[in-house]
Design a protein that fits this description.
Elements: H1 15-24, H2 35-44, H3 50-58, H4 60-99, H5 105-116, H6 123-136, H7 140-153, H8 158-173, H9 177-190, H10 193-209, H11 213-225, H12 229-254, H13 257-260
Helix pairs in contact: 1-2, 4-5, 5-6, 6-7, 7-8, 8-9, 9-10, 10-11, 11-12
């Protein structure tokens, strides 16, 4: 293609430079085919710039290859980001459509199927909606499983810690007290100081329901020890209530089999 004439963005150039640029655009035609062209260009280039020109002419094909590789890399990165955005929008659309359904077994199935086919980085959002649907239906084991997946995927984030507590609570509501208590005890060690009181309260109540009266009473005592006034009185009373339940349970267990009937 002809070299354009000088214009507002293209200063005038010599005939030698125009021939040099033209040859750069001709496919598979090495610069060495026209030595006079190189000499003419070199004569018109300042002396201090000649080494740079010689470097370009000697390595032109390598420079072009590097430029092409950079362009392809940039294009690939753009395509990857576009595909990620498109994929995220697709999941969001499906999730919004499922949320419009009433909370029932069909909704849970649709959410579980969506979670199974969703990239890992988008799964917490799907599992959060799955938790809501399961809790609304009293499906505590399903909620616990979804909470567990969120806790796993966001283990190093506040969301993961909150999900761990949700998992423990759901397990207790499902009657799986031993599993819930184990999670709560492990969570206390990881919890910020200002969150430990709430976790200990969950632990004390779960232990009382599970018949682990000693653990429950001791935990209530610890809660009372760190508080004052009516709040401390409440926890001390709860500890006393739990110990009374323990006495009743032991007395019931000591009765002859005939009396228990």
């Amino acid at each position: 293609r002809d070299i354009p004439e000088a214009g507002p963005f293209l200063p005038k150039m010599s005939a030698a430079l125009r021939r040099f640029l033209h040859m750069m655009r001709v496919k598979n035609q090495p610069l060495a085919d026209d030595p006079s062209l190189i000499r003419n260009v070199q004569e018109e280039v300042a002396v201090e710039n000649r080494p740079f020109l010689e470097f370009i002419t000697r390595n032109a094909k390598y420079i072009i290859a590097i430029v092409v590789a950079l362009i392809l890399a940039l294009a690939g990165t753009g395509l990857y980001r576009y595909m990620q955005k498109s994929e995220q929008e697709k999941v969001q659309t499906q999730l919004a459509r499922i949320q419009q359904q009433k909370p029932d077994a069909a909704q849970l199935k649709a959410l579980e199927d969506l979670a199974a086919g969703t990239p890992e980085r988008l799964q917490p959002a799907v599992n959060a909606v799955l938790v809501q649907s399961a809790l609304a239906q009293g499906k505590f084991e399903v909620a616990a499983a979804a909470y567990g997946r969120i806790a796993r995927d966001a283990a190093d984030k506040p969301l993961g810690f909150a999900a761990l507590l949700g998992q423990a609570g759901s397990l207790c509501n499902a009657g799986k007290y031993d599993e819930g208590i184990t999670l709560l005890q492990s969570a206390i060690a990881k919890a910020p100081v200002n969150a430990r009181g709430q976790i200990n309260l969950m632990l004390a109540e779960a232990a009382a329901r599970a018949g682990k009266y000693d653990l429950s009473a001791k935990t209530f005592d610890e809660l009372a020890g760190g508080r004052e006034g009516s709040e401390a009185d409440y926890y001390r009373q709860r500890a006393a209530d739990v110990r009374e339940l323990e006495k009743q349970a032991k007395a019931e267990a000591a009765k002859p089999a005939e009396e228990k009937k």
